[in-house]
Amino acid sequence: MNMIEVNGLTKRYGNVLALSAVSFSVAEGELFGLIGPDGAGKTTLFRLLATLLNADEGTATVNGFDVVKDYKSIRNCVGYMPGKFSLYPDLSVKENVDFFAALFGVTLEENYDLIAPIYKQIEPFKDRRAGKLSGGMKQKLALCCALIHKPKVLFLDEPTTGVDAVSRSEFWDMLSNLKQKGITMLVSTPYMDEASRCDRIALCNEGKILCIDAPANLTKNFDTPLYALAADDMFALLNAVRSIPNMGDVYPFGEFHHLFSHSELDCGKVSDELSKKGCNNLTIKKIEPTIEDVFIKLMNNE
Amino acid sequence: MGTLRVLLEKEITQIRRNPILPRIFVAMPIALMLVIPWITTMDVNDVKVAIVDNDCSSVSQRITSHVKGSTYFSFRGNATDYQSAQSALESGEIDVIILIPNGFERNLSSQQPKPIDLTANAVNATKGSLGMQYVMQTTIKAIGEIQQEKGLNPTSSDVIAIKYFYNETLNYQHYMIPALMIIVLLLICCFIPALNIVSEKESGTIEQINVTPVSRLSFTLAKLIPFWIIGIIVLSIAMLLAWLVYGLTPTGSLGAIYLGAALFVVTMSGFGVAVANISDTMQQAIFVMFFFVMIFMLMSGLLTPLTSMPQWAQDVTYLFPPRYFVKIMRAVYLKGATIAEIKMEYICLACAAVVFNTLATLTYKKQS
Q1: How many other CB atoms are found less than 10 A from the CB of residue A269?
Q2: CA distances from B319 to B269, B313, B347 (A)
Q3: Same domain for B239 and B112?
């Protein structure tokens, strides 16, 4: 059985189309990532699945329950961690955990095993007010509170946004541990480099899902020759490449420009041509695609 | 029920931890009861009187000594002429001028004595008219004494006996105190829980609660119950202070007051929750609330009597629940009314409680 089943969900805010006929499914025990920039509709999707919003069109089920009809059953079996820290800042760490446990009629002790690896990290600060915790600690506390009732499905809306690189990596380790315990997870993130930590990902943009696959398959099936280019004057290089007809699309990409070529290139020939156009110290090399390249290509095909 | 207990414990912890609220709950009744009755008084005293004595007779001296002796007046001396007295009146140094004409005493026994002129500054209408009344009574009394000593028929001053019912000494403080108690309840039970709910919206914590199986009713009740209890405790403190400081105790039963107060807090908190439901931010909630609370304060007979409003305004006030509670508080506190005697007010307040809380429930449902 699929834990999450989404069929043609559409949501409008006035004239703005936040979600446009989105469909996908997440298997039991899967770690599913929603990858996309701000405004892709990720949060709206979470709010629909967490029964905080109603869709205009389409249906969705979580753990076999309909998000509209059986919303009460869903609230018993899902954990939701919103993008914004939303625990009580004036309650202590332990009080927050105990409070959310009590709302579900459980105790911290009962489900201690599940959250222990995470809770142990914040336990030294258990009497500190939640509002006084550091960003990474807040995330851990929020995860504890979302897990305290042993949910079958966990919704994590941009859990790593605004968290330092080390804590981000730690956080994904925690999610991998939870996966071992059979919890189905739907995670969104704007960071493309986190995509590889998911079993499958959906790349989304402007309310649509561009494609769904395992991250490895997405890069493996990328059939466009991809080249990285660099020169002394990067801006001039960009213009130079764009001025050559039939080269393909080129984008700035950190310290290199990425060229999505129409065909295999003869690097030497291209290098000569660009040097003639005034690009000094030119580097050009064929590279393996990343998820971000896949995303950019899909976005341009739209 | 278990969930409600958990929620209540959390609310009480949060209220206790709040750096300001618990102090305000203690400070507010004390400040309102100890300070406000002395400053928002409409009692007229310290009427500044100047006398232009053109007669220089025993009558004019008697009038002067009566004015000096009265606690209502502060005597500002004899003016040499009416002109200078009038300019003092214009500049606000004096409130009332008594002009005693030349030959007043001589003409007293005659059929047509020259009249005494009284001039009052009526910019402050209450002070002007009441001050004038007091001056008139004092003057007539002084003249009457002289007439009696001379064996003349006294001018009519003692033929009318005045008695003020329910507040015999015309003590404005006694009129204000029940009103101040209502303001305290209004602020604690209407404002604070509503702002509390909106703050959970602003901080996003309400989302986290909404994905749990907690029902909205429990959530809202947990917000209201602590403030109902605090409201009633604060009312009791205020009543205690009214007794200790002003010697004012309810003439009617405490039960009648607490029943009215209970209905009132339930009504007003329902109103507060409805406002909280339609507001997304504190700013919106505060402004909407302020708008209504201002109207409630000015149009419920809290500060000025309903009967002096135009008829259409009086009709509108039937829509405002504080109107009924103001009536109940004054009737029970000052007149000793029983519940049976003012049962219409209780019934109306109970209906208002149902209406406002239904409104609160309906606005809540619209959110999802």
Answers
A1: 9
A2: 16, 11, 13
A3: no
Q: Where are the domains of chain A?
A: 2-214, 226-301
Q: SS3 for B77? A: strand
Helix (H) and strand (E) counts for chain A? 10, 14
Using an 8 Å CB-CB cutoff, list chain A residues near B213: 72, 75-76, 103-104
> What DSSP string describes B52-112?
EESS-SHHHHHHHHHHHH-SSEEEEEEESSHHHHHHHHHTTS-SEEEEE-TTHHHHHTSSS
A206-263 pLDDT per residue, tens: 999 999 999 889 888 888 888 998 888 888 888 888 888 888 888 888 888 998 888 8
The architecture in CATH of the region A2-214 reads 3-Layer(aba) Sandwich (3.40)
Task: Note whether B8 and B86 are same-domain residues.
Answer: no
CB contact under 8 A, B205 and A88: yes
pTM above 0.90, yes or no: no
B269 and B286 inside one domain: yes
Question: Using CB atoms and an 8 Å cut-off, which of residues 115-174 of chain A contact chain B?
Answer: 145
Alpha-carbon distance of B360 to B357, in angstroms, equals 5
Alpha-carbon gap, residue B8 to B356, rounded angstroms: 23
> Is the distance from CB of A278 to CB of A240 less than 8 angstroms?
yes
Any A CB within 8 A of B20 CB: no
The alpha-carbon gap from A72 to the nearest alpha carbon of chain B, in Å, equals: 6
Give the list of residues 6+ apart from residue B170 with CB closer than 8 angstroms, or none.
Answer: B43, B164
CB-nearest partner of B204 from A54, A86, A145: A86
Domains A2-214 and A226-301 alike in fold:
no
Q: Measured at the alpha carbon of residue B96, what is the angle toward residues B91 and B102, in degrees to the nearest 5?
A: 110
B205: chain A residues, CB-CB within 8 Å: 86-88
Predicted interface score ipTM higher than 0.90: no
Cβ contact, residue pair A88, B10, below 8 Å: yes
CATH 2.40.50, domain A226-301, yes or no: no
Q: What is the pLDDT of residues B163-175, one digit of tens each?
A: 666 666 667 778 8
Which chain A residues contact residue B22 at CB under 8 A? none
Mutant choice from B11, B196, B212 vs A, greatest count of A C-beta within 10 A: B212
Amino acid at position B268, single letter: M
